[in-house]
Amino acid sequence: MIKISIRKIFARYDDLLSVTAVLTVTVTLLSGVLCFDGVRTERRIQKYISDDLSVEQSTRLSAFEEQACLPATAEIRETINTYEANVEAEKQRWLADQERRVAKLRKKREAKEEKARIKKEAERNTKRTYKGSWSGQRISRSRGSVMGPSGRETYYNLNMASCVSIMRSKGFSEKKYPYAVRNDGVKTLGGYVMVAANLSIRPKGSFIMTSVGTGIVVDTGGFASRNPTQLDIATDW
Fold first, then answer.
1. How far apart, in Å, are the Cα atoms of 7 and each of 12, 88, 104, 227?
2. DSSP symbol at 202
3. Is the overall model pTM greater than 0.85, yes or no?
4. Which helix (H) or strand (E) holds 40?
């Protein structure tokens, strides 16, 4: 997807170069007119100086004659100045647009890489702390205790405000890790299932696999001393 977007960017850049080339030829022709006129103006000034007029008098007199003899000169100059300003403005707009596109693609790629990294970390933590097997059952309101991928799972329903506050202090920002309750009643932080665990082997902020998705440790409980690998899933049941 990134390669396709980059090709599109270069295609738009080629189009911009083509238009710029055409307009550059036009400006070159107009500039030639002004250059030729400029030579004539300079000669007139030198003639006036040779006729004992001051440089300032000669320049002003030549300017009056230029406007009288070539009324289109000022208009041509104004056209060239306007064109150059428009080309520069278009160039800056194009560059800003490409910078925004690249930044958006980079942000999307980084988010995808971060999600993949967290999943790998959760899988490593699962293998490190639990050697049992998972039957594939998901914890639910009607199934209050299951053997999940990281050990036995239960659920609890408490106000998570204090847990969220502690996690914020640890750097899990509201923007990146918003608190939410899923449609199935599971409480999440940044999209990750909020769980309570034994903090000596699964510290707060660590990721772990659960039967209802990748989890993040935010809490602990008395169960942890009895069963170090048990997880308590935060829900609204």
1. 9, 23, 16, 55
2. S
3. no
4. helix 2-50
> Phi and psi for 189 in degrees, rounded to 5?
-130, 110
Helix (H, G, I), strand (E, B) or coil at 98: helix
Q: What are the pLDDT tens digits along the chain (237 aa)?
A: 555 555 555 455 555 555 555 555 555 544 554 444 555 555 555 554 555 556 665 566 566 555 555 555 666 667 777 878 888 888 888 888 888 888 888 888 998 999 999 999 999 999 988 888 888 999 999 999 999 999 999 999 999 999 999 999 999 999 999 999 999 999 999 999 999 999 999 999 999 999 999 999 999 999 988 999 999 999 999
- Euclidean distance between the first and the last CA atom of the chain, given in angstroms as a whole number: 41
